[in-house]
Amino acid sequence: MLLEAAGIKKVFGKLTALDGAALTVGENEFHGLIGPNGSGKSTLMKCIAGAEVPTQGKVSFVNTDITAFTPTERARAGMSLKFQITSVLPTLTLYDNILLALQAQSSLFDLVFSRTRGALHDQVMTMLTQFRLADRAFDAAAALSHGQQQWLEIAMALAGKPKLLLLDEPTGGMSLEERRVTGELLQPIKKHCSLVIVEHDLDFIRDICDRLTVLDQGKVLASGTVSEIQANKSVQEIYLRRA
Amino acid sequence: MPKAMGAVKQAVPAEIGGETHVATGSSRTAAKVVAGRKVLPIVEGVVLVAALLAPLVLQDYLTVFATRVIILALFALSFDLVWGYAGIMSFGQALFFGSAGYGVALLARDLDITNIFVVLPAGTLIGLTFALLLGGFLLLGRHPSSVIFVSLGTLTGSYAADRLARGWYYLGGQNGIPSIAPMSLGGYEFSEGPTFYYLVLGILVVVYLLCRFLVRSQFGLALAGLRENEQRIAFFGYKAQHLKAIIFAIGGAIAGLAGSLYAFHEGFVWPNMVGVVVSTQVVLYVLFGGSGTLIGAVIGTVIVEGVSFWLSDNYRDIWPIILGLLLLLVILFRPLGLISFVLGERERVGSFGAKVKENFKEKRNAP
């Protein structure tokens, strides 16, 4: 297994956000994390990415226990995160946003003497082309539409060739057309990368994911292939209950 | 979330002086960027020429004043790197400036060492060492330290150094160390005047060019990321704390160099030089001129010092109030400093794949 999170408990004061949640993701697998509001999806993502430290439980990534790793260490191990709130760097050009992500693991010497700038150019342009942003390469990221900023951010998260990409609500605030394109943009990365995706849009999730995990009140309600989950009675119930 | 996005979008055109930069099509934007890219070198050139000519037109006592300003501009560069480029709130930059000043004053007083090739590197090293120690403590945790922690930590460091200097007899207590022997090279002694001025100007130009090289490199891009969203770049795999500690140390070294020049130029050092007053002064220089641009720090120093000098001559009693109001006005209405009157946001931040960009364009335009 690429990622194994087991027995994750996270307590904020009196609130138990996660109560023994678990998640396993295999190689080249697109895994959807769904559940009603407040079920702990984002918290579980944060515990996996290192933005939050779980109160209890263990996270392993490529057979290494990374529970105590900092975000930097996780990134260097091959994990990447797209935040829920878009956090592209608005004053930098799109090109520089991608370059910033690509050069993250260059040595200090290489950075000071700009030794990797030339070599990374093709990779920057490939990423921008792949995400349909190449013609805006030298505009400031702030000038992009919301949807384009989300794509730029996904491109940045993928730039370092991670083994696992965590996407927290990638289609939030997007139009239907933009959602469709996002799905198209994500498909090709399956060849080299696994995906954990938190999303409210169930149609979107169903279209691109191989497996789903359903959280409810901080616990795993069900986990399985998309058709298994669709047939699951208790999953249907919670969605009907809340709807 | 959409609300926040809207705010960002609105903020950008406002910051570039209401130009419709963002709204225009990409070709027009590109044209503007290319045209805009020429502003900074022009400003730098004008400032350099003015600085080169200054001693020829200024009276002697004003050349001495101008020398002091150039040294302070060097000091301002150090703060600009740390704050304007890396976003580290250092409210104790005078600690490195002043401790280097005291260090070289002691070298001169107790060991009779005034050779320029010893005292300036020694001062730089003192600034570097103190910055490494303080920066290591404040910035190099396993988890990122908060802005408040760093700003209060640096402020406390500077305040403590001030108190220490005032109370320590060996350092001259309240009076500091007076009558420092002039800096020397062989038999030559650097006394106040045009020679000292050009020496200091030469050093400023060299340090400026080194800083310019640094902030335009890929390292500079990492600094831009650090300044705008430290958490984000940590998630890319950057060792953000290390980057901060490195730039903090470089800033300390430059402040140390400036402090040693200052000590020899003034001929004495006193506790204020390590304290909160000078630490705050440098913040004002950079805010006034424009943080995040190197030339802004230099211009800010020249204007704040120049205006103070003129005001104190003409409005002896109320000049600090006038100066305070002026500074408030600039900070309120020009948060990016005076330089933002001529420099757009896009050029201030700059492009880090600049050379690549031209190649890319040529390729695109090729048949």
From TrEMBL, chain A:
Record Pfam families: ABC_tran
Q: Which CDD domains match?
A: ABC_Mj1267_LivG_branched
Keyword check for Transport, yes or no: yes
Ranges of residues in domain ABC transporter: 3-242
The cellular component terms of Gene Ontology attached to this UniProt record, alphabetical and capped at eight, are: plasma membrane
Does the keyword ATP-binding belong to this entry?
yes
**What role is this protein assigned?**
Involved in beta-(1-->2)glucan export. Transmembrane domains (TMD) form a pore in the inner membrane and the ATP-binding domain (NBD) is responsible for energy generation.
Q: Protein name, please?
A: Branched-chain amino acid transport system ATP-binding protein
Q: Which organism is it from?
A: Bradyrhizobium huanghuaihaiense
Q: What is the lineage of its organism?
A: Bacteria, Pseudomonadati, Pseudomonadota, Alphaproteobacteria, Hyphomicrobiales
